Amino acid sequence: MRRTSQGFGLVEIMVALVLGLVVSLGVIQIFTSSRATFLSQNAAARMQEDARFVLSKMIQELRMTEMYGCLYFARPAELNESILWNNTTKTLTLITADIGTAGTAPTWTILSDCQTGAQLYSGARAPAAGQTAFPLRQLVYSYSNRTLSLNGQPLLQNVEAFDVFFGVTGNPMSYTNVITAANASKIRSVRLSLVLRDPEGRAEDQPYSVVAYLRNRF
Known about the structure:
Layout: H1 10-63, E1 83-86, E2 91-97, E3 108-112, E4 118-122, E5 132-144, E6 147-150, E7 153-157, E8 159-168, E9 174-176, E10 187-196, E11 206-213
């Protein structure tokens, strides 16, 4: 007896190939979408971390402005303007007390026994017995060519915008980006604004804004 051959027909093979192709395209689409989402979230997280680092550093330095030791003393004119902002060149200049002793050489040093007197010296100065040293640094933040720099050294790149606004006493408090002789002494807070951009275009531009209160003016 002759047995009939069993197998797949051409139509069945074509249907199987089409179904396999559809499933493969679906898997590829899911993988591509997941990869794009991961890259976008990773880029956004990296920008957020960069912004957090820079803004937290600047907030700490702003809060330490006008911290001139434990006793009042006759200060030179250069210490009277602890915060300066040039809105044209996007340059922020701070005179801030150093935190700890691990930083670079200070611009000035205040030596005081916190009882009878205090004296300001240029550069670093070691305290004598019974004295405390308060190092001060002049920091210059500048923004140019999408780069935020500190004292001429690049600090953060891919910065799309950088702005500084000052909270001036009033009811209610108002913000301005211009420091004048009339409002300089009325400044009580500083608002920093950053917009970061992913150079690969994997995430949208991310805006960040924080407010630092000048604790030594309250």
